[in-house]
Amino acid sequence: MENKLNYENIDKARRLLGLKSEATLSEIKSAYNKLSLKYHPDRCKEEDKKKCEEKFKEILKAYKTIQKYCEIHKFSFKEDKVEKVSPQEKYKNHMKRFYEDWWF
Question: Looking at domain 7-74, does it have CATH number 1.10.287.110?
Answer without folding.
Answer: yes
